[in-house]
Each structure stands twice: as C-alpha cells, then as structure tokens.
Amino acid sequence: MIVLNSENSNVLLDAYAWIEYFLGSKEGEIVKEYVEFGIISTSIISLAELSGKYYRENLSKEWNNRFKFIITKSKIINLTLDIVKEAGLSKLKLRKKDKTTGLADAIIYETAKQYELKILTGDLHFEDLDNIIFLK
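The structure assignment produced for this chain is given below.
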C-alpha cells in the first residue's frame, strides 16, 4: 500500500497509467490508490491517446464507459497557449534522453511542469526524470 501525502498525492495520470488501471495489473493497483485517495488530473492529450487505442482495438463500448469514468474521477487539463509554447523545448530536452519521445509526451511533461504535478506513469520515455512517479 502506498502512503499518499501532500508531496505525492497530486498527480497527472498519463495514458499508460490509465491503461494499467483498467487492466487491473500490478501497476494498475498502484494507480488505483491514487484514483481512490489522491488528487488526480489527466491531460486532454492522454484522452486523445486513449481514444486512439480503444478505437484501434475495436473497443468503443469500453472506451465510452472508461471515458466517462476518467472525466468524472479526474480534473481534465486542456491545452493552453503556455503549454504549447513550451512543448517544443520540452520535446527537445526529452529527446536528448530518448530519441523516440514524441510530441504528446512532451505536452504531457510540460503540462505537469506548469501545473506543478508529478506524472504517474510507467512509460519509459519518462523514466529517471524529475517529477515522475514511476510504476515499475
């Protein structure tokens, strides 16, 4: 069991975290603690990533239910001009660590930075970065 406190309970869940949560995996059990007892946010970009995954896998019914759950349980953070203005710089910095880091990851990273949130994820693009709670 995770002990949530003021330093680690306010998090941004990325698509990876939500997928593990819905799978009920070992990593998903950690996410469940945050969903039930933390203060969680989700980037609108993560919702778009999840939408792509569920439609690609012909799981539209599951997606509709999960979409409703996510928008009920978490604060949805929309893109802002400040986020998109700095996303390119974040991508450049993230690509120094991993050349495959995409713009969506950079936007999520910049969102967390601007809202002073930690990212809850198991996505290897974020491993060993500041303000990350890594699920592995």
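Interim note for the steering committee: DSSP finds six helices and five strands in the chain. The two ends are 15 Å apart (CA to CA).
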